[in-house]
UniProtKB/TrEMBL annotation, chain B:
Gene3D superfamilies on file: 3.30.70.3270
One Pfam family, short name: Fer4_7
PANTHER family: FORMATE HYDROGENLYASE SUBUNIT 6-RELATED, NADH DEHYDROGENASE UBIQUINONE IRON-SULFUR PROTEIN 8, MITOCHONDRIAL
GO function terms (MF aspect): 4 iron, 4 sulfur cluster binding; lyase activity; metal ion binding; NADH dehydrogenase activity
Gene, per the UniProt record: mhy2G
Organism per entry: Thermococcus gammatolerans (strain DSM 15229 / JCM 11827 / EJ3)
Presence of keyword 4Fe-4S: yes
GO biological process: aerobic respiration
The name this protein goes by in its record: Formate hydrogenlyase II subunit G (Mhy2G)
GO CC terms, sorted: membrane
């Protein structure tokens, strides 16, 4: 059935309000869900669909049940907005979250249970008709995601995800890096205290490139100076200096082969400790 | 002037910093389970089957809160956040991504260990050359826990015997 316009009743079943903020964004002129025929209805008696947010607390369970029962018998679409409504999200094992007795809290089942589907299943067991459930994960989903989900419910767009099952047949690769793997992993751990996940891999990759180019500790020092001058971001410069200090420290500590003379390295490490001590970190 | 986004009818891309759904690259995954330990919402599962000798790493995007901790924890860079956000679906099974890997089998007793073949390969890559004498550690690394313990005790007993004689 191709739906033409959808009257949506919004029900909060214990959400943190993040999804609500995103849901109201799609009614602004910029996203404008009304051009798809979506309007918010004030009562479940007027609604084709219910936009449910939140992990379904035990308090909200009865109200949500009454609301779904009050909806017209068809189509009764449920739009689960946010990860919580899809599967319980971060609150999955909280004490106030409603769960059917057979869907445990610590199980190994997948897809993960929880959220509004527990109520839908209860209603279906009672013989009530409940239409399809559209799952829109995200914590919170951005307005485009909600628009996409609504368009999917209306039949305007095609589904894009598909469950995947990979076995050993896909092959295995163990990437090689210019520096030893154990040092790379140590540097990566150290870098966690300095830069966020977004820049980390790129900074480490650039550093490894410089190490591969450098023939001695002095040369590495010069290359990193050049890199920091070229890169205007002070956080990246700090991360590079911290990486170099850690790299030379590791090389020295474990007595692995160090390029360059020992005295130069000593001075190098001491100078760096003065210049790059601004970074915070437990080590 | 039209301000409204023509979104579901045109393609748009999320900004580069956007945290979309994570994705496991099955060619890089070693099945160590670091992501499973890091995941606060239990969106990642590690399911071991010692009868069949397989380990499944299961990612359920519908439970994921996109905190990127798995991305931080992964030692091989197999699990990565993507910019993909068009994951709405009518079937929850579409959200699940499974990587099934073989568990390592102990060459001595033939039972399955609690790590995968790929994880062993990775561990041997990290292991520095010449830190331990000979290939002693490489001989032990491939054994299961019980066999390793037994070998260590046997070696110790033999060494003490040599001392006594």
């Amino acid at each position: 059935m191709r739906l033409r316009s959808l009257y949506v009743f919004h029900l909060d079943t214990g959400a943190c309000n993040g999804c609500e903020i995103e849901l109201f964004d799609i009614l602004t002129p910029y996203y404008d869900a009304e051009r798809l025929g979506v309007r918010l209805a004030a009562s479940p008696r007027h609604a084709h669909a219910m936009a449910a947010t939140g992990p379904l607390t035990r308090q909200a369970y009865y109200a949500a049940k009454e609301a779904i029962k009050a909806m017209p018998p068809k189509p009764r679409i449920i739009v689960a907005i946010g990860t919580c409504a899809c599967s319980g999200g971060i609150f999955y094992n909280g004490y106030p979250i409603y769960r059917r007795p057979e869907s445990g809290r610590e199980g190994q089942e997948y897809p993960r249970r929880g959220g509004i589907f527990e109520l839908v299943q209860d209603l279906r067991d009672e013989g009530e008709y409940v239409g399809p459930v559209v799952y829109i994960p995200g914590c919170p989903p951005r307005p485009e995601e909600i628009l996409y989900g609504v368009a999917l419910a209306l039949g305007l767009v095609e589904k894009q995800v598909k469950g995947e099952y990979y076995t050993e047949e896909v092959g295995f690769e163990l990437p090689e890096y210019p520096i030893e793997e154990r040092i790379r992993l140590s540097l990566r751990e150290r870098l966690k205290y300095v830069v966020g996940y977004f820049d980390r891999e790129k900074v480490l990759e650039d550093f490894m490139g410089l190490v591969a180019k450098a023939k001695s500790a002095e040369e590495l020092h010069g290359l990193i100076q050049g890199y920091c001058l070229k890169n205007p971001d002070p956080r990246v410069s700090l991360a590079m200096r911290v990486l170099k200090r850690e790299f030379l420290r590791l090389k020295e500590k474990y007595g692995w082969e160090v390029k360059g003379s020992a005295e130069a390295l000593q001075g190098e490490v001491r100078g760096l400790q003065v210049s790059a001590d601004g970074d915070a970190g437990p080590r | 002037m039209a301000v409204t986004l023509k979104y579901p009818f045109v393609k748009i891309e999320a900004p580069p910093e956007y945290r979309g759904v994570p994705h496991i690259n099955p060619r890089l995954c070693i099945g160590c389970g670091a992501c499973v330990n890091a995941c606060p919402a239990d969106a990642l599962l590690r399911i071991d089957d010692y009868e069949k000798g397989t380990r499944k790493i299961v990612l359920d995007v519908g439970r994921c809160i996109r905190c990127a901790r798995c991305d931080e924890a992964c030692p091989t860079g197999a699990i990565r956040m993507t910019r993909n956000f068009e994951v709405a679906t009518l079937d929850r099974k579409d959200h699940v991504e499974v990587v099934e890997l073989r568990l390592h089998r102990c060459p001595n007793c033939g039972s399955y260990t609690d790590y995968t073949e790929r994880a062993l390969e990775k561990a041997l890559q990290i292991l520095p050359e010449g830190l331990f004498d000979g290939d002693e550690i490489r001989k032990r690394a491939i054994l299961c826990r019980n066999c390793r313990r037994k070998l260590t005790v046997d070696d110790a007993v033999e060494a003490s015997r040599e001392v006594v004689e």
